[in-house]
């Protein structure tokens, strides 16, 4: 599981990172609300663990803005403010869970797992971006009602892009999530597959969906 941890206390962040890593999760850390918001909006994380009181942008504001942008990643808010009013405010902003400080590491890990398993049970079987539709059960892709013939790797690549539609997806993210190996800056495998995929989903249509973000990666959006 890829976890984004947004925590400004360096010691706590490192302790939580070590505990999550020991539970076999990959952890990335942001130290303030603005950085956390940027990483959450542009990265493919499975769960976000977010401190409420953050510099530059409060945790509740981060959650609210992510939900307004359509980012549905499960969020666990951590806070020393855990009376009913504060919990309700956090949940109403779009958080999935709220954990008061101090807390035990065991409870934190259990809640993170529960958020991921809960999301896993709500897996979508159909994805859509504009007039591009993917049926995950039938393994078919259509655009404007026209069936597109994709190879298995192209299908997986498109699925990942559709699940992260509207967000910039980096080459590293694609290699790690679509090809299952770590970043090799010399490989051109992504360029080749993106080119083939673009020719199939965009070539015969007036509007392009697959965009290159210069210096960053790719974005699929209507």
Can you give the mean pLDDT? 87
Task: Name the helix and strand elements from N-terminus to C-terminus, one letter apiece.
Answer: EHEHEHEHEHEEEEHEHHEE
Low-confidence stretches: none
* CATH class identity of the largest domain: Alpha Beta
CATH overall fold name of the largest domain: Rossmann fold
CATH superfamily of the largest domain: Response regulator
Tell me about the biggest sheet? 5 strands, parallel
- Tell me the number of helical segments per DSSP (H or I, 4 or more residues long): 8
Cα gyration radius (Å) = 19 Å
Query: How widely separated are the two ends?
Result: 29 Å
**Strand order in the largest sheet:** 2-1-3-4-5
Roughly how much helix do the residues carry, as a percent range? Answer: 40-55%
> Tell me, what's the shape?
elongated
Q: Which strand-content bin applies to the residues?
A: 15-25%
Structural class: alpha/beta
CATH architecture of the largest domain: 3-Layer(aba) Sandwich
Number of strands: 12
Count of domains:
2
What does this structure look like?
The protein has two domains: 2-121, Response regulator (Rossmann fold), CATH 3.40.50; 126-220, Winged helix-like DNA-binding domain superfamily/Winged helix DNA-binding domain (Arc Repressor Mutant, subunit A, Orthogonal Bundle). Helices cover 42% and strands 22% of the residues. The chain has helices at residues 10-22, 33-42, 59-68, 84-93, 105-121, 152-163, 171-179, 189-201; strands at 2-6, 26-30, 47-51, 75-79, 97-100, 126-129, 132-135, 140-143, 146-148, 169-170, 210-213, 217-220. Strands 2-1-3-4-5 form a five-stranded parallel beta sheet, with helices on both faces. Strands 6-7-8-9 form a four-stranded antiparallel beta sheet, with helices on one face. Helix 6 (152-163) packs across helix 7 (171-179). The longest helix is centred in the middle third of the chain and has 17 residues, at 105-121. The model has no long low-confidence stretch (mean pLDDT 87).
């Amino acid at each position: 599981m890829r976890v984004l941890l947004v925590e400004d206390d360096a010691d706590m962040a490192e302790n939580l990172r070590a505990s999550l890593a020991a539970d076999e999760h990959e952890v990335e850390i942001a130290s303030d609300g603005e950085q956390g918001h940027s990483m959450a909006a542009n990265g493919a994380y499975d769960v976000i663990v977010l401190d409420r009181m953050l510099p530059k942008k409060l945790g509740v504001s981060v959650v609210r803005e992510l939900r307004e942008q359509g980012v549905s990643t499960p969020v666990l808010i951590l806070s020393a403010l855990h009376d009913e009013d504060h919990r309700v405010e956090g949940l109403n902003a779009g958080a999935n869970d709220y954990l008061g400080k101090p807390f035990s590491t065991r409870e934190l890990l259990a809640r993170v797992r529960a958020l991921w398993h809960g999301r896993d049970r709500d897996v979508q079987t159909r994805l859509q971006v504009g007039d591009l539709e993917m049926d995950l059960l039938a393994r078919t892709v259509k655009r404007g009602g026209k069936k597109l013939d994709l190879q298995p790797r192209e299908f997986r690549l498109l699925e990942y892009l559709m699940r992260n539609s509207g967000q910039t997806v980096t080459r590293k993210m694609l290699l790690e999530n679509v090809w299952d190996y770590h970043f090799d800056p010399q490989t051109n495998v992504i360029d080749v597959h993106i080119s083939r995929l673009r020719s199939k989903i965009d070539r015969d249509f007036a509007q392009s969906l697959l965009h290159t973000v210069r210096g960053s990666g790719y974005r699929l959006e209507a």
